[in-house]
């Protein structure tokens, strides 16, 4: 299992790198391969200082969807996140930020704000130091001046 975990971690890392390089087909193929490895393992693991398993695959699949601008696909993938994930807090918060970005880009402002507020409640120290949530709030502020969003923007020191 530790070797499968390490192998899967390498594959999903390659998938995210391919997504960022806009090699969509390659990224999707690698996600598929990582999904197969995670399915074979069946559980989340932490081996050799890396996390891998079904939760990590879902989180990185969402990331690949976001960076390749497949926002609907990213949100569909997010629905597969296992309950009771063992991902570290920072990973769970980043996953919520990716979902928020997908929602924002699809015009789902309320769902984007809800995801950011959930991330803030889980990791208030984490969110204060991240640029992605700030960027999302800035984009949302340009479109809508709702009071909950303004309050979140103040707490994140975002001006619109």
Total strand segments: 2
The helix tally amounts to 9
N-to-C SSE series? HHEEHHHHHHH
- Oligomerization: single chain
Radius of gyration: 16 Å
**Residue-averaged pLDDT:** 93
Broad shape: globular
Strand content: under 5%
Instruction: Assign a percent range to the helix content.
Output: over 70%
Secondary structure: elements and pairs:
Blueprint: H1 2-20, H2 24-41, E1 45-47, E2 50-52, H3 54-67, H4 71-78, H5 89-105, H6 109-122, H7 124-128, H8 131-143, H9 147-155
Antiparallel strand pairs: 1-2
Helix pairs in contact: 1-2, 1-3, 2-3, 3-4, 3-5, 4-5, 5-6, 5-8, 6-8, 8-9
Structural write-up:
There is one protein chain. The chain is built from 9 helices and 2 strands; from the N terminus they run ααββααααααα. The chain has helices at about 1-20, 25-40, 55-65, 70-80, 90-105, 110-120, 125-130, 130-145, 145-155; strands at about 45, 50. Strands 1-2 form a two-stranded antiparallel ribbon. A hairpin with a 2-residue loop joins strand 1 and strand 2 (about 50). Helix 4 crosses helix 5 (about 90-105), helix 5 runs parallel beside helix 8 and helix 8 (about 130-145) packs antiparallel against helix 9. The longest helix is centred in the first third of the chain and has 19 residues, at about 1-20. The protein is globular. The model has no long low-confidence stretch (mean pLDDT about 95).
